[in-house]
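Tutorial sheet, problem 5. The two components below are modelled jointly, 423 residues in total.
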Amino acid sequence: MPTPKSPTPETSTPASAAPAGGASTGTAFTRAIGLATIIGMGALAVFGLFISPADVRQSDSVRILYIHVGTVWVAYVAFAVTALSSAAYLWKRTTSLTWDRFAGASAEIGVLFMALTLLAGSLWGRLSWGKFWVWDARVTSTAFMFITYIGYLAVRGLGGSHQQRARRSAVVALLAVLEIPLVHFSVKLWRGLHQDSSVADRTHVTLHGLMLFSLFVALVAFSLLYVWLLMHRQRVLAMQDALDDKGLDYALQQRRSEGDA
Amino acid sequence: MDLTPRPAAPAAAPKQRNRRKIMSAVLLVVVLGAGLFVVFKGLTNALDYYCNVDEVGHKDGCESGRQLRIQGVVDKGSIKTDKGITTFDITFNKVTIPVVYDSGEPGGLFQECIPVVVRGVMKAGVFEGDDVEVKHSNEYDAKNKDRIAKATVEAKTCTQSN
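Model answer (structure tokens):
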């Protein structure tokens, strides 16, 4: 947003490449990431649907794995970034609202992708377990984490000043991120219906070579999509904050003119 | 928009404020620790989704006569279907329990040599199931490999214990 000078330095937007006359959240960087995302998703479709083999027991339903794991990967990363950004905001004398907006944007993306994880998992569960939903430790803890982060977004919307929003939500984010290890290790801590991980924290990967590579493609493609969404969303949030501040300036002006009269 | 000036925060001595901060942080850690302890120690049985076949009647929470979920591998050649009633045997740790399931076709990947979780009640040595869920493993392999590889996978499935 190039036009008005915003009152606080934090709310000035980084969208320097915006065309004159209109606000844009795109830059050369996001366009490059966007292009890479499209190529990555195309590659994932080819590998996931055609090149990777069907599973010996699950047949074609195993292909849901690439979406299920890819989306939950983004959710985990997004929530971790939310926590790190929140910590950076709370760190002594940082209190930069840019960190807060990164935290908020990342959490929104995380919630979206966790919803997709639950949806893909539900369809996969119907095909392999015979059930859309079960209350085992992994599924329940994932649902719990999903709801926690919806709560985080609600806390962000409570109102007050930007700094108040940032401080409150940062504390919630730092507590909520502790659920990631709980969800991840729930399959080891408790007996459930959900299978154990096939790649992470094990010495022997229990995934056929081409399936493993397709999963790798999925992780790269979804990570690129995450970065693209995060950059855009963070800039939109900066614009919203700037708009709020303009409203505040306007109200202050009104008050002052009342005093003058 | 409320623009009334905020009342100044009561200024505590900085040292006192620091001590209070540390105290509340310690309290938070203690509360979190206690919460985790309760979850891990107290609720582990409740959080487990099933009892293994060999634990029925031996482990706390796995008493026969009450509603249970039991887990075991479906024995090779034991599945029989007759008038909507499916019978099969499930085995875990060399203990076998016969299952009668009368709620239609078990869904999902139900087949022999695959681990399943059956919900129901143990009655006179037979487990009367009303719900069957398939607990597939975390192993994935290509479908159209040569038959020897497939046979190895199947043999492994029927003996796996996790």
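Marking note: The helical segments of chain B are 14-42, 44-47, 147-159. Full credit if you identified this.
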